[in-house]
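Fig. S4 source data, part A: sequence.
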Amino acid sequence: MLINNSRYYPLFIFILLSHFVCAQNAASGKIVDAKTNKELTGVDVFINESNKPALTTTSGNFAVQSDSIIYKLKFLRKNYSLESINVTSENATNIFVKLSQEKESNIQEVVIHNERPKYKNKKENPAYAIMQKVWARKRNNGLDKFDTYTYKEYEKIQFDANNLDSAFMKKKIFNKLEFIFDYKDSTASGKIGLPVFLNEAVYENYGENRPSKRTKRLLVAQKTSGFQDNQIVTLTAKNLYRDINIYDNTLNYFDIGFPSPVGETGFSTYDYNLVDTISIRGENAFKIRYQPKRTEVLAFQGYLYIDTDSYAVLGATLKSTQKINVNFINGISTELEYDNPDENTFLPRKFVTEIEMTPFSKKKTAKSIVAKRSVDYSEYQFNKPLEDKVFKRTEEEYSDSFTDKDDAYWLKARPDSLSKTEQGIYDMLDKLQQTPKFNRIVKLYETLGSGYYNVKKLGIDIGPIFSVYGKNEVEGDRIRLGARTYFTRNDPWRVQFYTAYGFKDEQVKYGAEARFMFNRVNRFTVGAGTRRDILQLGVQLTNDDGIMARTFASSTIFARGENASLSSVNQTNIFTSIEPWKNFQIRLDGTMQSIKSANPDGFSLMYYKDGALRKTTNDSHFTLSLVARPGAKFSQTGIDRYEHGTLAPTIVLKYTRGVEGLFGSDFNYNKLQFLFYKPVLIGSWGKTLVSFEAGKNFDTVPLALQNVIPGNQSYSLAQNTFAQLNYYEFVADTYTTLHLEHHFNGKILSFIPLIKKLKLREIAFIRGAYGTLSNASKAINVEGFKYSAPSEHIYYEYGFGIENIGFGNLRIFRVDFNWRGNYLDRPNISTFGVKAGFQVGF
């Protein structure tokens, strides 16, 4: 009942990691008189923009905590000037505050307020007039206006475990690991902060707008704190962040849409208040405070800094509300800085994002990890001639040693030097790598995340562990064991196999495949494999011919009705593939297979050939596949890659040619198939998943080679299947299917009292299929009279789902309620059904 998506494995590992290494937001320090340096008491300390003091001090020291990220503190004492301090992870534990006394003649009433000014309409709001001018002069990224451009990008990602205490340090898990606390920072409150991960990267960016559109982002240096070989931790860090443009109407965080406070639709979500005019890097700027009209929605609060002359955005702060409804996230805070070279464009200058993550609870006392990413953009150059070779991928870029740089390089590459605690991370993690207990903990995380247990000395992964047990009508209880070679994350070749045994049919099954990649640049790869197994066919239209490609499991423990429609498949495949352009793959497969019913008494695949009755379909075919993934991002350069979370579409075009007589093949046929899949953010209304497939068999083939509209008789969720269809209920020579699934992210349920406290999220979906089946295709099958296509009307299903079911931050359960829309007069159908499963995601 698990929706399996490998890009969420790192998130699962983070949940486990957070259970052991955790923290909560805190800040502490000392307050003194600026003139006498004597400690002050009776000081009110305000967190962020709150109008209520979080603490009134009784000594010169202070320590405050919050259930969200602390980015600012204000200090106020009678007869003293108000002092405001920006809080970062570097200064949060040793803040030194000096308060200056005001002369009596200059003392005025100081009011810190959080009220929203009331206007009869938005046109009376001076902030509205300013934002109108921002929209009228909306700026575009300045990189688009130049013929060519280059710039440097320095990225730093750090995980910190904060607010630890002595009791936490004494936990058994830290036995023999006590030395890590030598790198701690003690705070005034006696709590402890501990950095646990640091990744630095330097990129060189190249772009050409004219005469052709080309871009290149070259990773030239990378340094990771002891985790160079730990794919799980590094990928978790990279997967947390998306690039954003403050001028867009929707900002992408975790592939969830948040309304932008600078977007033209901002006033439908936010209240704006002009609070001050200040200087930003020498430019006069309006300081506008904004906050969501409803705190239950996915939105931000913070400040906008708008140039008073050009109405350009000089900077912005974005902070999530305390009621943020995102799994595993307690808070988000982003600071943006822009340069504005002219009245039409902007250039990114510095982005800093902090994400507070907890595995379970959103309470103020919950422990958490703060992940901070800072990106500095520099060394812009424009209209400089660029040679063609700059945009070409080279073998050197994919070498394991390409990004290895010495300490001297990093001292020069960093825009700011590392803090003392940051420098200690590298030393600490190097020591941890030599600690057996730490390596055992890491291995546990990697095993659960990848599904494989690595035997490093042999270079073998054993697994996948989640496929060990299954059950179906033919095999009864089924045990499956497998393994694959795995020496490093960048292996250019891989051999993998599995064997399975069914206790009911007492048959051994197996599969094996070998792949080798000759070139890391264009990923020219060849492979071959074979398998003999019991499979559930007819649950995918556009499938992969690879032997070890993921298929719909033949093992269903809980199902709607008995499933007897399993097939016994003997298959051999060879293939070659290449990526002549980035994210565009050309693949050619040659496949020889024989297919027969695994349960002849309950499911027939018999057909007529030249007047003879046959039970086995012999097939040899070639398949040419074109696969485009524009915008997709991957980690590593080996034969297997890990995909980052993006909104990239998947576009597949496949042509299959069956050749009669080749290795005993029974049929000549031609098949054409197309698939399009794309997640789409719909502003603040959530995300729509669009999946469209179309295909055609141009020749008559038996059921084993026919297009089957995918059904799902299990009680679990299965992507791109029809929940209320039986297996093989609809068969088509020509077909089209469309799946639309919209995730509202709690937009509607947040209006309902009491229900909104559960933080549930609503889903709506509709699915449709249309196709035709020729009389010849019906006649060739012995039981062809049973099969038909949805040709009278478009078959459709509809329904709704509830996701985000759980407690605290652990909300990974989903339930769908499905209705069958038509073809209700058919026997043994289900007009209504419930599906359930786990979704590990934000």
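Fig. S4 source data, part B ends here. Residues 1-24, 104-114, 186-191 have pLDDT under 50 and may be disordered.
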